[in-house]
Amino acid sequence: MNLTPTMIKTQAITKIVTTSEGELQILQPISFDVKAAESVAIVGASGSGKSTLLGLLAGLDEVSSGEIYVDGQPLHKLDEEQRARLRGEKVGFIFQSFMLVQSLTALENIMLPAEINGLKDARKRALEALEQVGLGHRGNHYPNQLSGGEQQRVAIARAFITRPKILFADEPTGNLDAANGEKIENLLFRFNRELGTTLILVTHDSELASRCQRQLQMHAGSLTETSQPTEQPEAKRHVG
Amino acid sequence: MWADSASLRLSWRLFRHEARRGELTVILLAIVLSVAAVLSLSLFSERLQTALTDKTAEFLAADRLLGSDQPVPEQWLEQAKALGLDVAKRVQLRSMVFAGEQMMLADVRAVDGHYPLKGKVKVAEVPFGPARETDALPGLGEVWMESRLFQVLGASLGGQLEVGDASFTISGIISELPDGGFSVFGGDPKVLLNLQDLDKTHVTGPGSRTDYDILFAGPDGVLEDYHQWLEPRLDRELHYWRSVKDDDSPLGRSVQRAEQYFLLASLLAIVLASVSIAVAAQRYSHRHYDPVAIMKTLGAPASLVRRIYLLQILFITGLGILVGALVGYGVQQVIASLIAERVPVALDAWHWRPFLIAVFTGLVCALLFSLYPLMKLFSVPPLRVLRRDLGAGISSRIIQFLAAGVAIFLLMWAYSGNLKISAILLGTGLVLVLALLLVTFGLIALGRRLGQGRMGAWQLAWARIQRRAMDNSVQLISFAITIMLLLVVLVMRNDMVQQWRDQLPQGTPNYFMINITEQQLPELERHFGQAGVQMDTFYPVIRGRFAAINEETIRTDVSKEEDSNNRGRQGLGREANLTWSDRLQTENRVVAGSWHGDSQGEIPRVSVETEVAQRLDIKLGDLLTFNVGSEVVQAEVTSLREVNWQTMQPNFFFVLEPAAMQGFSPTYITSFHLPGQDKAKLAGLMAPFPTVTLFDVDARINQLRSVIEQVSLAVEFILVLVLCAGSLVLVAQVQSSMDERLQELAILRTLGARGWLIRASVIFEFLIIGLVAGAMAALANELALYLLQTRVFDMQARLHWDFWLLAPLVGALVVGLLGALSCWRLLSFNTSQLLRRML
């Protein structure tokens, strides 16, 4: 019997939006669980509902029906303020377009979530995180002075500064070349392993998906599990 | 605490970085502009008004005047002195004065040693001679008198003049008293004597009509304090309080009009500033959608986001106000020192009010106009981090327009305290907005037809206008309102200065003659003609007592105020100057009934001036009775005339038809212009006609002209200031709209569109917008001007056809040029820089 606690639990969640042509069901009822420290890839074609699912799991959006529990808390019952607090305390994010605040330096971007959550040692943590992603010398640079790979490393440092229990990554390597993409992947999985963070990532990239313990396939708003939980693979040493 | 350390730290950090990276430039510039424009305008106009009020105060010989039928208690004067005010006494009455066998009714003024508190007494060496200023006053036992008295009484310097029971030595010739009045028929000739001599004349006994005036001068605030102290002690039947603002003379009116113009210009500057802040705040808000979504995603509660951005706006506003105040002060200081030579502006005078107004305006504008964009910003959902197309959660143009309209109106009203001007500007603005919305949709429909065909610059321009209909309508409205406001200020200035100059054209009569008998008339004309002096029209005049309206006897005992020097009241009540003519005088306009012309009816007809008609409740069809000597003349009111009292020509309350006055032997009034250098000729000219009385209004006209020139100059500087403010607003608008175009330019560029195509399409787009905005502005301008001129400025409204053509052309040119320049800047970036700027 597996004693690892459940980090995310969904029960028959759906998402329906109203369009000019009537109601449109983007997500069919979806149920699945994610264990703590597990890495899960959500894969699927564009428009299959991957990002919508990610938004719901992360508490950025509300379900139309069904239940979501994050670390035991009923996300579907929380209002926006409560969800914001939960995100601040338990969740980290990485986006395809980095989503750094352009008018803040790399260091300040990393400090942002720590400051928002009232952590006292924000600066010290941010400096450490910056070192860990290998950008110790670029803390005072603005995002537009950094390359795409560097920006995403800043984003990773920002995501981990509050030691979140769950990390959501939306196409984290989608805007990067292969070499930079690999560096980012390695960093992601390293933190996932070292900090015991639950990793949920949305990707087109089957190789990236294959490095996760589980792969969930989205198709036209429905979810199918394509691989059973396995041991987390070692970091790839080479990418062709 | 409202602003906790986290929000303060984050907000300050964002502010610092963004300011350094130039991302706050536009909104900062807008606030700087609003504060600088309002400050420089109001500071400058305050200083100018102080200068002009000082000038007009000279015509009252004081800042304030307390008039009374009886001597006022000494305690009142002591109180004024205790407050630090300057005080002077003047006693004024009408009395017969005698020199030998000759006598004449004179305006006798007894003054103490402090008179005049403002302005100077001017004297001449010989009657009608050149004037010079003096600080002296008649000594004990002496009188000074006006040239006219010398002429009529045949008196000379050193001779004796009897006033009441006392006899005085004539020791001076008055050329001009500062408080002499502006009326062409400036009342009776004046005699000035020492107040201490008044008692021995015994002319102020019971039954005499004596004014005991107290003159005050000092700082405005102290005068107001004193007036507040005094007011409960005043008896309405006996006392009245006057300030220069109550001055109803042509000069007073000109100054009042100029003040209203400054007010209008400042209001427009506020509106312009508000528009530019609204535009800039919109842009600011839009640029922060992402950071807000990121912060919310990272767990920032809504309250933290709100605090961060409200603090940020406060920082920006604070900096904007500081810089704006410095710039505004500098600008007006430069202007004031530039014109200091021509207008006596006190450079060192310090006025707090404009600073307070400017800071208040900056604060209110910045907060009110960023409120809606901020509300939009706060409503940005965190999901935007995943779905970039998600914008703000709220969006209502109607709320935006409504809020902006109400805010602008309240600002104007609060600032001006003038509901009428505020309502006119707002009303015209609303009409303009509605018209523009209609035009926009019309344009879009037109654009569908014009924009078809191969994709050239023209088609791209139309396609953009059409696609961004709502955005464009907002832009069109803001361009049109800016252009309209500039037009209002420009045209208003032109009309006002023109009317002032028309009032006193070169060759304006500076001498008037009355008491010309019918027998003297041909000889006088010939004599002056030979000397090369051109006489104006001769008006027959007869003194008549206004006795009854429709058989109802009217009170002929006029009140004190009505008997003052004011032009409108002169001669009414006891006696009026009646004239007759079949021709309507220039600058007279029939507003009711019809002009009697020369046709004869059964009952003689009379035309009455509107203000008198209003005061005495005279209506068309009323039968007026005048006693002329022992005869009774009755006439039916068949027309009411509006008279432009600001022209320097004889004007009459009652003009009868000639037939009514047959059989009476009138005297004649005329006027003529004599250049300054020919002044010496006067004595010779008048010598053969000792009974004809001459009025010298040359000095008055020169005074009036110099003030009008100064005011015109000031108005022109104000115009330049507002034009600068308006141009900057246009630049801000074009720049902010350029941001919105960035994405499209980047895509076109990426797709390989040539620079000239993009450039031409943007220029076409702005040309079209400028053209339409200019045309609509010209229309709205006419409406605003019509209302302002007829309802506020008391001017004749007219159409301004030249601007109907000029406004669209200049609008297209300026807006097109600004668009081209901004576009140039964007196209100087390469495609990847463009794409990067979009992030």
Automatic annotation (TrEMBL), chain B:
It holds the Pfam family MacB_PCD. Keywords: Cell membrane, Membrane, Transmembrane, Transmembrane helix. Residues 264-382, 717-830 form the ABC3 transporter permease C-terminal domain. The chain crosses the membrane at residues 24-44, 261-281, 308-331, 351-374, 394-415, 421-446, 474-492, 713-735, 756-780, 803-827. Residues 558-578 are annotated as: Disordered. It is a multi-pass membrane protein. Its main location: membrane. One of its GO terms (cellular component) is plasma membrane. It comes from the Bacteria. It is found in: Cell membrane. Residues 27-202 form the MacB-like periplasmic core domain. PANTHER family: INNER MEMBRANE PROTEIN, MEMBRANE COMPONENT OF PREDICTED ABC SUPERFAMILY METABOLITE UPTAKE TRANSPORTER. This is FtsX-like permease family protein.
